[in-house]
Structures are given as structure tokens and as C-alpha cells.
Specification:
Elements: H1 4-15, H2 19-28, H3 30-40, H4 45-48, H5 52-64, H6 74-96, H7 98-101, H8 109-112, H9 123-136, H10 138-149, H11 154-161, H12 165-183
Helix pairs in contact: 1-2, 3-5, 3-6, 5-6, 6-10, 9-10, 9-12, 10-12, 11-12
């Protein structure tokens, strides 16, 4: 049985302000959210001292605190949840203190903003670079959020945007190149 119709219905009900539907929605996609969180934190657990479960729960609290959930389908909701998890992770990193930010950790973008996160990722530097990218090209910044933080595939993004996979791949290369220049080697 395809779970998509049930999730889509829960999204519709949650968008109408149904708190029970919002809770059921989070339960329905919980394992996928955990996979996203594990991917975000791959190799980073000791550095951030944040487990995937804690990241998912932090994001769930933020999502449940909203008046309504606005997403078209499972993929869109997971992409949005990835953005929320990124914000939770960023808040956690900032809370850890400025000492680690000033430690001079450099991001190697070719391997960091690829398909597998690295353990030396400076989340705050990436966040700031994404904010600058959004000023230059909101579409590329959204693509990075969906692909890297949301864990979406090229095909899922193409379907969501109504574009071809080749176009998404081309934009992905452009976004990575821009971030590589912004963050350094």
C-alpha cells in the first residue's frame, strides 16, 4: 500500500489546523525524518553532541508549535522538515559557543556539499553562505536546502519544481561551485 495518499490527507488536515492530524503526520514520517537527521549528523555526533533523535524531536517541537503545516505532499513536507532540522542544528551549534566557530574549521565543499556530509562541516559558515546565496539566487539556495538538508533526490526535486533532472543537476553543480567559492577550499 502506498503511504502517500494518507500523508497527503494528513497534510491537508494539518494545514486546516487539525492538531491531531499534525501529530499523526509526524508519526507517519518519523522514520524518514530520522534518516534525514542521521544523514545531516553523519560523522558529526561527537562534535555537536546531538543525536539524530534529538534533532528530529527538536524539529518536531518547532513543527508542532506552528499554527498550521503548509506542504503539498510528502516530499515537500520532508524538504521543509529538513529546513527546520537545519535551523535546530544551527541553533544548537550557536548555543555551544563561539569558541568552536573561531577554531578555524574549514569546509571542503566538494565532499561536504556532495551526497555525504563530512564531520568537519562548519554548520554556521554553511548557513551564512546559504543566506548569501539566497540573496544572489533564491532558486539555488532552495535547491541546496532540498538536496543537502532535505535529503531529496534530483528526481524528487525535478518533480517538485516541474523541471527536468538535467536542469536540477546543472543547478546543483552551479550551487556547489558558488558555495565552494564562498566557503573556500
Amino acid at each position: 500500500m502506498n503511504p502517500e495518499p494518507a500523508v497527503t490527507e494528513l497534510l491537508r488536515q494539518a494545514a486546516d489546523g487539525d492538531a491531531h492530524a499534525r501529530d499523526a503526520l509526524l508519526a507517519a514520517v518519523y522514520q524518514e525524518l530520522r534518516r534525514l537527521a542521521r544523514r545531516m549528523l553523519a560523522g558529526d555526533r561527537m562534535r555537536h553532541q546531538l543525536a539524530p533523535t534529538e534533532l528530529v524531536h527538536g524539529a518536531a517541537l518547532k513543527l508542532m508549535g506552528q499554527d498550521h503545516v503548509s506542504a503539498r505532499d510528502r516530499a515537500h513536507f520532508l524538504a521543509y522538515s529538513g529546513q527546520v532540522m537545519r535551523q535546530v542544528l544551527l541553533d544548537h551549534v550557536r548555543h555551544e559557543g563561539a569558541a568552536r566557530r573561531d577554531a578555524g574549521v574549514q569546509v571542503t565543499l566538494v565532499s561536504t556539499i556532495a551526497d555525504e556530509p563530512r564531520s568537519d562541516l562548519d554548520v554556521e559558515a554553511l548557513h551564512e553562505a546559504l543566506e548569501r546565496l539566497a540573496e544572489v539566487s533564491p532558486e539555488l539556495a532552495l535547491l541546496v536546502e532540498r538536496r543537502y538538508f532535505g535529503g531529496m533526490t534530483v528526481e524528487e526535486i525535478a518533480l517538485l519544481d516541474g523541471s527536468s533532472a538535467a536542469t536540477v543537476k546543472r543547478r546543483w553543480r552551479a550551487a556547489r561551485a558558488w558555495l565552494h567559492d564562498a566557503l573556500g577550499p
